[in-house]
User: Fold LssY-like C-terminal domain-containing protein from Arthrobacter globiformis.
Amino acid sequence: MAVSKDTARDAVTDPDVPQNNGPAEPAVPQRAGGQTPQEPEHSRPDSRKARWGTRWATVVAVLQRLLYVVITAAVGWAVYFFLLARLARGPEQVWVFLPVWLIAAYAFLPRVHKILSSLYLPNYFIGRARTGDGVLGDPVNLAVVGPADELRTAMLTAGWIEADPVTPSTAWRTLSATLLGRSYPQSPVSALYVFGNKQDMAFQREIDGNPRKRHHVRFWKCPEGWMLPGGFAVDWVGAGTYDKSVGLSLFTFQITHKIADGTDEERDFIIGTLQTANAVESVHVIRHFSSGYHHRNGGGDSIRTDGHLPIIDLRPHGQRDSAPAL
Assistant:
């Protein structure tokens, strides 16, 4: 393990951890006996203009939801029409499975998940990335202090390769490389979302000269002034996992990579490569950043984590020696 549990310290009590305890709690106003406190703003009567604005915003939101539901229902009807109605005519209609799978996997089921996840998942940071359908994805298991150019240089120096963006061309190249056993070191990774944004950069290490198996990590830039729960200021959060094979998503049946459940081991491997490249000033661990848990990611793959979050403080590029990359 790159970050030894024997030496990892609780970041809450570590004076060297880059942290910000946040603003002091506001003092409770002291009032003379018998004085009635002023109504808080949220309980005061709204003005006529404010009420109309709120109602109009509600109407627009409801119409948007209804339109999304209608489109989803239409896609579901198309699945029924192509599959059940045609299969009833005889086994020679088995060819309809392909269009039905495409419609269900890439249109109907993602829309259903989008609707449901918007209802039951909070729209704020909870230590998990999310898929484009809103489903919980990989655990956020890294944090980094340092600018973008230093992070990119550190990863490249440590032997990682930056992933290409997803385009029809790169998607086809990934598919053909996977099926034919060819190398594609810059193979793109799918989009996952933190802070409502997809990853700002992603890096990988191909295994056995094929994108079917690979180490990979995504990084998201933290919003200005944002801090981790507990008041720790960082510049980036990351999610590192290992792709062990290619298969179908458990939730949408889309073609996707299947990840290994040992996300902690992958997290520590990433840190180890950076330390070997002498790109790390220090690593401090927020122990029990979240409770350790077993769950599934956005593709339905099992994941497990101890809940610890290492904070990597990058060494400025000019202070690194010539340690070889892995």
The chain has two domains: 55-120, 128-319. The radius of gyration is 24 Å.
